[in-house]
Amino acid sequence: MNIDVTKIFISSSSQQTLQPLRERIKAALENAGHETVMYEYGDMGLYTDNPNQDCLIKVKDSDVLVLFISNKAGSLSRNNPNITITYAEFMTALKNDKIVIPIVETQILNFYKEHVKDELDRAIYKYEMKYDHEPRFTFPIVKALLEEHKINDTVLHKKILEIAVDDFIWAFVHDCFNMTRWTYDYSIADTPELCSFLLKVLSQVLRKSTKFYLHEKEITQNLLLYDELSVYQDAVNNFMKCIVNAKLNLPLFFKTLSEYLPGQSIYDPYSDFAEHPVPILNISECKAITLYKRSEDLFSLVDSYGSKTPAQNFKIEDEDSFVAQTYHKDMEHREHVFYSEEKQMIYMTKKVGELVLSCHFQLSQLWSSRRVNSYESDIVSAIMEKRQPFDFAIDLLGGMLNE
């Protein structure tokens, strides 16, 4: 029996002084029955040729991000000098509703609370009053504040220099303190004690967050209910028009479905924090739809839309057929993505009883099959930004055409 364990991503800058801590924390968490992900142990796997991007993919796949902040920030991004990869991991975890447990070196968090927090809050408030919106990044505000201290508060400026902390750390700590539910301080040098402390914290956080996330889900659902009902009602009305004389008009049905599958873009998760994110891939609107039905040892074409020369039949054991693969993989409750490098085409397939539906999308550039596979969930999410119409269409299709 497979048991799902908590996946914990261990995040920090790559400074050498944190390496013993990271190794001990990894061992302690794994001994407690958790699964850990850490870059230097090869836990990333090979997804793309961009290790930063691979880290963020792994953050999305984890349940918890444990973050250690000491005095070194690590390298700032070449694409966006307002963030580091560790900060990008932190923000990716927050944006994907992961549990984030930041642990900040005690003297740094205490210094922040005593000397930095109030001034930085005031500087951010002034920015908001001037520009009528929140700053996208905290680091530019920190840099301006530190420059101001050089002239107007030389005593505080000297204290900041003496604590020997990279400037970016103050922005990072500020965002952790304001964006997370828990920000802990601990002497990171006390590695064995910190391991014990983290395990206790993790147990408490998981216990407390269970009830919170259940309520959070209910609240979110209630807030989105009106919008979802509106979209669903619109879909029901449009798809019901496809039933003519108690039969499903498939050409009209396919045309209606294609209108709910517009073109979308995929973004490099690292560029989520850039000033002007640039898509790494554009997915066209639905170009074609085909529908096949099993009859003994063959899948026969029922109807198609937008495809000039669809295949008429596939053998049920045809290992090269996306239709046959979809049918055999027991994927009634999910969509799957196949890719043809030759045609530069995505095929999103869905099993519906004895039917297999395939929706075709053109990619803006040539990707490898391996890269497409690593982005499968992102591609499906992008294609079906609002999935209620698709789900209703599938229910209608199965109910009308499956005997």
From TrEMBL:
InterPro entries: DUF4062. Residues 7-93 form the DUF4062 domain. Pfam families: DUF4062. This is DUF4062 domain-containing protein. It comes from Cytobacillus dafuensis. The lineage of its organism: Bacteria, Bacillati, Bacillota, Bacilli, Bacillales.
